[in-house]
Write a structure and sequence with these properties.
With 169 residues, the chain is an all-alpha fold. 74% of the residues lie in helices and 0% in strands. α1 packs across α2, α5 crosses α7 and α7 packs across α8. The radius of gyration is 17 Å and the shape is elongated.
Length: 169
């Protein structure tokens, strides 16, 4: 899976499956026994990346601090997601699979959002799905190769702007 994630990040969704198999140290037939097609492999990679993000969430931290850490950690994955989603959304099956992945992300953000609501950090009307979109929007101001200072500055500005609509009134 890590070989596929690296290849999708480096070459995009259209990467040759032979390249992925070679990076993984397996034959293409072995890879195809485990993943029927590129879409299945891409969705498995994204699902695994979402699980890693979920396991790194700290519900005890202030909400926006947790969210900032999550966006920074997820930056390469969110960029990869954008490229894969652009390809998969062209077909109904791809859109359905992406919706399921979005539901998975919303589900793991739900405890974080609930904790933030109980502490009065976010409006009661804000959903976990809203914050999944928030993360994508915040990550859009970041790119691989930025310095830590640039990442911190850009993310602070984006989150300050986005946060205005999420706070209790």
């Amino acid at each position: 899976m890590s070989a596929a994630a690296s290849c999708f990040r480096e070459h995009g969704y259209g990467v040759n499956l032979e390249v992925i198999a070679k990076r993984a140290g397996v034959g293409r037939a072995t890879m195809q026994r485990n993943f029927a097609d590129r879409e299945t492999l891409a969705l498995a990679v994204l699902s695994q990346e979402a699980e890693i993000l979920k396991n790194n969430l700290d519900l005890s931290r202030p909400f926006y601090e947790s969210l900032k850490v999550a966006v920074i950690q997820a930056m390469p994955t969110l960029a990869m997601y954008q490229h894969i989603a652009a390809e998969l959304s062209r077909a109904e099956t791809g859109r359905t699979a992406l919706a399921r992945l979005g539901d998975e992300v919303s589900a793991f953000l739900t405890p974080l959002v609930s904790a933030a609501k109980s502490r009065g950090e976010v409006s009661e009307t804000i959903s976990a799905h809203d914050f999944a979109i928030y993360m994508q929007m915040a990550a859009s101001v970041l790119h691989v190769g930025m310095s830590d200072e640039e990442i911190d500055t850009n993310l602070d500005v984006a989150m300050r702007i986005l946060t205005l609509g999420t706070q209790p009134r």
